[in-house]
Amino acid sequence: MFKAMIRIGVDFGGTKIEAAALDGEGRILARLRRSTPQAYDACVRAVAELVAEVEQVAGGGAASVGVGGPGSVSATSGLMRNANSTQLNGRRFPADLEAALGRPVRYANDANCLALSEATDGAGQGARVVFAAILGTGCGAGITVDGRILEGPNGVAGEWGHTPLPWALGDEHPGPECWCGRRGCLELWVSGPGLARDHGAALTAAQVVRAAADGDPGAQASLDRYISRLARGLGMVVDILDPDVIVLGGGMSNVQALYARLPSAIAPHVFADACEIVVRPALHGDSSGVRGAAWLWSLAELSP
């Protein structure tokens, strides 16, 4: 039986793995991180060791474990797929974690964990439909309806980053080739590296944003193109899902200009005469990944 009311969430990323233990009120009792190994077996060991360490810091006893990470588990084969941490693809990652930890593990896409965290007690609290997008080194999205993750029968709901850029302009088509084998995926345009690549100079996305704020015309033009592309991508989401709130996470969610400019930039792409579009930054910031993973287990399931 799990230690009553203690949940551990693990955020498995391409460069770091983070684990946190939460109490029944969602307060973080312990939080640790380490670099992500490149070898698969080392990844499984790293997660198991982090869980043991954070469990010990939180007071010992076996807690529930939820893991948020890239890609998803195939409903037919049970194997990982579509993960940009490619060492996971084709492997039974959640099952191997269960064997290493000696207990059940719940796994969800990291964007789904962002959506669940923010719908539970974050920027989407009280909203019926939350669309949460991660705009970081990659791009993905999660959806919650009435506080529950929407995955779909094929487990691919929210794979927004690997849909094409909508209403592409002449020089945007067919777009660069994506690691997934397609061309012109949204991830290539609205991720941080997408902004840096489009700018063309040897600057990071954060440097482009700072240069734009300092009045550099080239950087301002790059940021304008970025906002246009993100607005088109989100306009398509509003047409299909019409969420109560759009929550942004990842490094690009720290660009304050997005919240001032996106609602009016999205509106022309929505098939309606008028619409109210709410775009907010993730309330829990980079803690949303581990929090959402921990919330994969409900309090009712942990009660004695």
Characterization of this structure:
This protein has 304 residues and is an alpha/beta fold. It folds into two domains: 7-113 and 287-302, 2-Layer Sandwich (Nucleotidyltransferase, domain 5); 123-282, ATPase, nucleotide binding domain (Nucleotidyltransferase, domain 5), CATH 3.30.420.40. 35% of the residues lie in helices and 20% in strands. The protein has a five-stranded mixed sheet with strand order 3-2-1-4-7. Strand 5 (72-73) and strand 6 (80-81) form a beta hairpin. 43% of the residues are buried. The mean pLDDT is 93.
Keyword list:
single chain; 304 residues; alpha/beta; Nucleotidyltransferase, domain 5; five-stranded mixed beta sheet; 10 helices; 20% strand
